Amino acid sequence: MTTYEITFNEHTDFGKNLLAFFEKNKKYVKVNDNTKMTKEELETRIKRAEERYKQGKSIRLERKDFKKFLGLE
Fold it and tell me: Which residues of the chain have pLDDT under 70?
């Protein structure tokens, strides 16, 4: 078995299609997603967000705007 490392933008149409292809062919392809954060990283981000909120440096998003804000649309 050979290991390849491929870097691509999963937010583009090409990236979405490539990920869908890999997911559909799990029997033949192993996808290692190293973008998942650890529990400690999540807790650190939450604490930082709470501090920013207390300082008045945060913004409020409507539910319908989440994907656009995150660059998923």
Answer: none
